[in-house]
Amino acid sequence: MPIKSECPINLQATYQFKWFYHLTVWFALALLEVRFSKATSPFPLNPGNASCGGILRDSQGRWVVGFLRNIGYTTALAAELWAIKDGLSIAKSLQLENVILETDCRVAYVLLSDNLNPFHPHSTLLMDCRDLLRTIPQVQMKHVLRESNMAADAIAKKGALAPHGFHFLFDCPPDVELLCMADRVGVCYPRQ
Predict the structure, then answer these.
(1) 144 to each of 5, 117, 147, 165, 174, how far by Cα in Å?
(2) What pLDDT score was predicted for residue 30?
(3) Is the pTM here over 0.85, yes or no?
(4) Nearest alpha carbon to residue 169 among 98, 104, 86
């Protein structure tokens, strides 16, 4: 699917972002990665210790399930793709037919939207994600800013403190419940 250009953003202004309800029976899958690295390079191929996580919510913003993964040493892009793969695997196992996949990684969004380069360093993860996308009847993929989903950001940060590997969160953690509630009532968060 082609990526449409967005209107230019004034870098001097402050913008407000929030999570939006979905009026039909869709399940929102918000995915974020958090990278904790001592490296200073801003490039996505710069490796470090990484974690990722996400939340699956119903169309009213209610918690369905969450997940997190302490990945270990990898790149930020690989962490994003792990979050997408884990989230889509959960959606597939729950046999969901309508999924809105939200990611804060523009690079992952573009890579999953464009033709796959078989020589890309993360081509295996990309192929796994694409295969999972094909198993769900209706998927809307969206690029969102981290401030649009503070609850998923909080879950992703918890991944860095978890034991290595994948972890389900069947119940919403109390500190994240407040953020989920804020999303449901439409709280906006600033971004400069």
Answers:
(1) 14, 24, 8, 26, 24
(2) 66
(3) no
(4) 86
CA distance linking residue 99 with residue 138, whole number of Å: 6
The backbone torsions φ and ψ at residue 21, rounded to the nearest 5 degrees and listed phi first, read -65, 155
Phi, psi of 69 (to 5 degrees): -145, 125
- Take residue 20 and report the two structure tokens written for it: 């939006």
Q: Which tokens hold the place of 118? A: 């078989």
Cα separation, 11 vs 80, in Å, equals 25
Distance CA 55, CA 156 (A): 9
The pLDDT value given to residue 163: 95
Closest C-alpha among 107, 182, 179, 91 to residue 143? 107
Reading the block at residue 142, the tokens are 């969206």
- Name the helix (H) or strand (E) containing 74: strand 63-74
Cα distances (angstroms) measured from residue 16 to each of 94, 174, 187: 33, 25, 9
Average pLDDT over residues 112-137: 91
Residue 7: pLDDT band by 50, 70, 90 thresholds? very low
